[in-house]
Predict the 3D structure of the following.
Amino acid sequence: MRDLFLAVLLRDLKLASRRRIDSLLPVVFFIVALSLFPLGVGPEPQMLRDIAPGIVWVCALLASMLSVGSLFAGDLADGSLEQMLLAPQPAIAVAAAKSAAHWLLTGLPLIVATPLVGLLFGLSGPALAALLAGLLLGTPILSLLGALGAALTLGLRSGGMLLILIVLPLTMPALIFGAGAVSNVEAGLSASGHFSLLGALLLGTALGAPLATAAALRISTE
Amino acid sequence: MNSPPLRLYTFAAPSRFYRLAGRAVPWFWAAAIALALAGLYIGFFVAPTDATQGEAYRIIFIHVPAAWMSMLLYLVMAFWAGVGWAFKARLASMVARAIAPTGAMFTFLALWTGAVWGKPTWGAWWVWDARLTSELILLFLYLGYIALVNAIDDVRRADQAGALLALVGSVNVPIIYFSVKWWNTLHQGATISMTAAPKMASTMLTAMLLMTLAFWAYAFAVVFTRTRAIVVEREAHSGWVAELVGGRMHP
């Protein structure tokens, strides 16, 4: 099971390294979408500081959901997904490896780009640290739930939009606690409660979502 | 022809369900109309005017039962979808799909009446109150389910994928509810709440219960009618449907 997990994970990373521009798209989308907000709401520093945590989270959500749609599409098209599911190891390893690959290729670059965004929006040091910690705990949840949505909408005509409609309501708790942690730090309060809840959400999702994704893959490829 | 012995699964056969539901639907409609008339009469003419909210509170006779139904129907839908998936029971999957539009309608009704009540009471059509927000997210969950099952052409896959989504959604509903509630208390402080109002007069309670029963009867009537339509659609190739429509569907 561990071998299958590692094999799928390394294969996805290798494929991404061969298509470098493609793998950069989510993080570019993230920064471009974020830089639209000051143009839309005006450049007052205080307002930008207030809305920064929320819009960083919303843009991270959208960047994850837009990129997760193609997670299984290529493997379905060339038949390798069916071969992976035929393997004697449980499909849950495939689901977990795909989610992990998506996080490494999308979630992690977003976190690396966030200090830059912090500069653009004038976030203070502690607030930026809270934002980064929240994203570190929260973006794996987005990848895990996104993989479930991608498996359910595999090969459908309106897959992209549908995936967003299905997954976004499920990700709302992560958004609430991730953005809430930064607001708490800015108000001078402790954010440890938010981080504990985000961590609990991450653990629960990591246990449940690959199971559901594996079931969804079986349903969709039958 | 002898009728087969009656067992627990007798009405799980689509053909028998079709006949039974067809006979039950008019009764449910009659019950829904009678109960709604009685409930609305008591609610609008008998129940006393509320001391703090005036006449505007009377919307709760529709709002509260609709909100109850919206949450209950999501769980019922997830239950039947799960049964249909786990036991390959065709009828259970059809019932789950028939429930979804009614559940979404009740959710919308609860939101709409909530807005109408909020305008005179809170002074705004929409307040990001914890209950309103989680009801809105429930509407999104219903819409996601309906969109998913309609986007998949293969009936079997649509039923199973819908069941998985409904089950994941029902696990998430409490998590969403409590996170929204917590978010709300952090951002707004104490909002005006209905639960803080003084105890309800018994006529108000009677009216609310009557309306709840009316909505139950309505939900049964509509869900059975829709299930009958789905049964005929999916079983169009079978002999009993051909007999039903007098051999017109298949030569």
User: Anything to note?
Assistant: The mean pLDDT of chain A is 90. Chain A touches chain B at residues 148, 152-153, 156-158, 162, 165-166, 168-170, 172-173, 176-177, 180, 183, 197, 201, 208, 212, 215-216, 219-220, 222 (CB under 8 Å). The two ends of chain A are 22 Å apart (CA to CA).
